[in-house]
Amino acid sequence: MNLMCTESQTASEDRCFAEDRTIFRDERAVKKLLETESQYVPGCDYMAHSHSNLQPFMRRVVATWMLDVCEEQRCEDQVFPLSVNFLDRFLCACDISKTHLQLTGAVCLLLASKVRQCTALSIELLCYYTENSVTPEEMREWELLVISKLEWRIVAVTSFDYVDHIMEQIKWKRRNDSMLRRHMLTLISFCYIEPDFIAKKPSVMAASCMLSAIRGIDPSAAAEVASELCLLLACTAAEVDEHVSLIDALVASTTAAATPEKSENNNPASEPPVKKPYRVQDYGLHDGGGHL
């Protein structure tokens, strides 16, 4: 009997796994997430205690670079928040030089893609995205370092894990609206980029992103949805309101920064702004050796 598997995956095949909607309708799954999420929340302000002068903008630059890699490679939605969770927890446990920050981010992407994606990102590909400032040997060495500092606890709970549970269990007239889900995921990505959300609970962050998205799509349903979210995710209205205020301020500042400048006669520019390729090196954080 020949048991050899001759199947092969082509580059065009979808990396996404099949969903089981029954799990998302089961309240026990949400309760389990709530019970375990506190184990994976970064427990310190590592930028305040770092001896290597890590600054919030450095972490923001690296997190944005990580998101760009995930988007360009069309990774599973949960890869990015999980990789940032790894990054923050590792930096709480290990004080590193800022010249190793991009290397750490690349390793966290590697680990997250192995955990949450059918086809992991390759080491060579991640080295390419660092413009070869990181070598495969360094990636392999630091992969062992990161996973050991995380104590092999890599199946972490992130805000993404609550998204589909919320979409299935919150009752409103457009419950399965794909636009709402897309807005939630965008807001969650923004939150994981910003250092202000490092120590926030994933459940409260997910509830706040849901409510902020609802307010933009159907403001009349916001009050009812807010009470259901608090009941489902065992959080208070005050917690959610505080997070929503932070998210709204973040969106406002991001929108203002992305608004194209107008000419002196107040007419819009004749051509839309062109997004420049995102380069970590553009922020002056390189030390000449290639690392961030």
Short description:
It comes from Melanaphis sacchari. The chain has 292 residues and is an all-alpha fold.
Could you walk me through the main structural features you see in this protein, from its secondary elements to its overall organization?
- This protein is an all-alpha fold and 292 residues long.
- The protein contains 13 helices and no strands.
- It is globular.
- The protein starts with 20 loop residues before the first helix and ends in a 34-residue tail after the last helix.
- The model is unreliable at 10-14, 267-278 and 286-292 (pLDDT under 50).
- Belongs to the cyclin family.
- Residues 64-148 form the Cyclin-like domain.
Evaluate the radius of gyration.
20 Å
Task: State the secondary-structure class.
Answer: mainly alpha
What is the β-strand count?
Answer: 0
Helix share bin: 55-70%
Q: Quick one: CATH class of the largest domain?
A: Mainly Alpha
Return the domain count. 2
Gross CATH architecture of the largest domain: Orthogonal Bundle
> CATH superfamily assignment of the largest domain?
Cyclin-like
Mean pLDDT level: 84
Name the helix and strand elements from N-terminus to C-terminus, one letter apiece: HHHHHHHHHHHHH
| Main beta sheet | none
Blueprint (SSEs and pairs):
Blueprint (H helix, E strand, L loop, with lengths): L20 H4 L2 H10 L9 H4 L6 H17 L6 H15 L7 H16 L6 H7 L6 H14 L10 H10 L8 H16 L8 H16 L4 H12 L3 H22 L34
Helix pairs in contact: 2-9, 4-5, 4-6, 5-6, 5-10, 6-8, 9-10, 9-11, 10-11, 11-12, 11-13
Organism: Melanaphis sacchari
Family: Belongs to the cyclin family.
Protein name: G1/S-specific cyclin-D2
